[in-house]
Amino acid sequence: MCGIGDGQFTSDESDLDAVLWIRGVDYLSGWRDAREAAAELGDALRLVGVESAGVRLRAASDADGTGVVRLELSAAAAREVALLARVTAARLGRAS
Length: 96
Fold this sequence. Notes:
Layout: E1 10-12, H1 27-47, E2 55-61, E3 67-73, H2 75-91
Parallel strand pairs: 1-2
Antiparallel strand pairs: 2-3
């Protein structure tokens, strides 16, 4: 995912009504960081062949202003990601 609306992984804008806003907290910086992280994750998932139709990435800010990326997967995409994680863990010697 290179950008919002580029036809790859879906990404929603921040849900401004989903949090209680606290005066003085910089939510926008956290959201920008999360948006960049979501783009990086989307690119990585695309590179390893995870079907973009089964993935939804959403950038948001937590209550303290830190960036948060929410990942929603279809069952098929979740199985793909789980398999990729297991293969990577085995290659790194972290498999149990």
